[in-house]
Amino acid sequence: MTTPDDVAPSDPAAADEPVEQRSATLAWRIAGVIGLVVAAATAWIAWNNYPLGTLDRPGSAFFPLLVAALMAVASVIALIEARGATFGYEPIAWRRFGIAVGMILGGAGLLPVLGFLPVALIGTTGLAILIEGKFHWKIPVTMTLVTFGIWFVFEHLLGIALP
Length: 163
Prior knowledge:
- The protein is built from 6 helices and 2 strands.
- The protein has 163 residues and is mostly helical.
- The chain is flat and about 50 Å long.
């Protein structure tokens, strides 16, 4: 018996099997409502507890408010799409999921000790390989460019210190 982790994405036998279609209406509605609640809570906490700043000197509430606004937009889109949404059901790859959760929690714990760059480089590269299901040279190159790009924008352009 094979598990989802054993079947390669490019396996021709796996590609020939029809994927079961299930209704995703309830899942999209739940995701939309939870997203709106989290966005509203994030925006409320940031607005009431942190300075907003200005566009040329953003305060600590600026980016949480921006993320909350984007999350609210995505949640509204999820609620609109919930009307006839379906998805192809495939078994969950629990081993890959557990490894990803461990990497995220480990990265959060190591962030104060090691700092942003090493944790982000290793974490994003590892998670991207897990998501892709195989190693390819483009993954570490892309993740390195993205990580250093984020570091450069925050540290040098915005003057916001990363841990």
